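Private note to self, pasted from the team thread so I don't lose it. Backbone tokens:
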């Protein structure tokens, strides 16, 4: 190693999945509250005719009143005028509806773009979507390195409507997010897909010439009011309106990443890790996407290479990749917790892994999880390999997930 590795790895026996102890308390849950109704007041109107005169009778809760009004000729003229006004209103309403439908059918309008802002992908809501099936291209959607972020047909329709070269350059993206590039094995096409479905939602900078925070500082107030913090909308609008937006300033001294989106499993894991840390008066750890990318890379390598326990980490230490990773992120102390499970292909498709409960019951893993030296964590998703490396043929598949910890780091989101 170049400078002596700054490594604190917990070498522990592989654990089988365990539930949180019965009766063990957890973080508070949210509640829902209903709404009261409101009373309505109705006025009834009737009309009667006597000879050439018309009377209007108004009936309400206070009684009935009667008064003489206009002659029949005057009344007919008035009704004709009212009919003409109603026809004009109907015509105007139809025209407004056509204009609205036309605006909605045009994907470049502010209204249309704002409609796909703030959507949640399935992996943000459903734990069973947070599983990467390395061996099954149909299940992993052609990406064996990461979960799939899908926001639905309306959002996906935009992916082919815009020129992504305006905001994305693969080499720049890899240089700004080197651990993500490692996780994706430098696959430019898959990195573009990541940028389209994750990166722009997190406000990541995809090329040297466009930073979304800079663009937001110089775009119209109308866009800010419509899009808010839905960063993906600004990218889409910018690409679809080069005639007006290309002249705006889109560079400057800004962060390369503005937010982090977590999968359902990652959110659960982070919540419980910090719950256990609070029990021992340790400060909460902050989630980091580059650490999570390394956790995914480690899980993939262990699944495909058949590495047991922390053998994979030792291999990375030998070939210098671990040192390189730590130097790029300016990591002080690195540590990881790993959970390995065997199972059937059927159960692997529906059963996620919650490693925090396993780690709580293991002294070495628990010590890492609540360690006061650590301030950042990368919670991993579940990777499933078709090979049963660690269970002597007992199971059909091998399932691996990791949490990675760092004492300090520096990346496009955090800058210590």
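Design output:
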């Amino acid at each position: 190693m170049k400078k002596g590795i700054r490594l604190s790895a917990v070498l522990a026996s592989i654990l089988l999945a365990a539930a949180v102890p019965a009766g063990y308390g957890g973080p508070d849950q949210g509640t829902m509250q209903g709404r009261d109704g409101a009373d309505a007041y109705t006025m009834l109107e009737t009309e009667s005719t006597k000879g050439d005169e018309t009377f209007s009778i108004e009936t309400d809760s206070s009684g009935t009143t009667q008064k003489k009004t206009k002659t029949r000729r005057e009344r007919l003229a008035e009704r004709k005028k009212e009919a003409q006004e109603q026809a004009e209103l109907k015509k105007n309403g139809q025209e407004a509806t056509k204009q609205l439908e036309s605006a909605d059918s045009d994907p470049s309008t502010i209204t249309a773009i704002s409609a796909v802002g703030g959507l949640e992908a399935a992996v943000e809501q459903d734990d069973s979507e947070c599983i990467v099936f390395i061996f099954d291209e149909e299940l992993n959607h052609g990406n064996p390195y990461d979960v799939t972020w899908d926001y639905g047909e309306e959002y996906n329709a935009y992916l082919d409507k815009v020129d992504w070269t305006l905001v994305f350059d693969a080499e720049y993206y890899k240089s700004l997010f080197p651990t993500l590039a490692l996780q994706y094995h430098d696959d430019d096409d898959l990195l573009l897909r990541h940028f389209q479905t994750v990166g722009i939602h997190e406000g990541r900078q995809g090329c040297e010439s466009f930073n979304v925070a800079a663009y937001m500082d110089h775009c119209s107030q109308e866009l800010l009011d419509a899009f808010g913090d839905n960063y993906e909308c600004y990218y889409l609008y910018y690409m679809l309106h080069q005639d007006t937006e290309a002249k705006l300033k889109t560079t400057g001294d800004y962060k390369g990443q503005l937010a982090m989106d977590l999968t359902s499993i990652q959110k659960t894991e982070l919540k419980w890790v910090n719950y256990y840390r609070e029990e021992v008066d340790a400060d909460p750890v902050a989630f980091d996407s580059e650490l999570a990318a390394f956790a995914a890379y480690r899980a993939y390598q262990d699944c495909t290479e058949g590495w047991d326990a922390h053998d994979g980490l030792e291999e990375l230490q030998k070939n210098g990749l671990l040192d390189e990773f730590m130097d790029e992120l300016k990591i002080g102390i690195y540590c990881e917790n790993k959970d390995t499970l065997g199972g059937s292909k059927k159960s692997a498709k529906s059963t996620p892994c919650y490693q925090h409960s396993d780690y709580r019951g293991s002294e070495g893993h628990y010590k890492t999880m609540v360690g006061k030296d650590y301030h950042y964590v990368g919670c991993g998703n579940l990777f499933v390999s078709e090979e049963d490396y660690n269970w002597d043929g007992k199971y059909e598949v091998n399932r691996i997930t990791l949490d990675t910890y760092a004492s300090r780091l520096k990346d496009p989101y955090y800058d210590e």
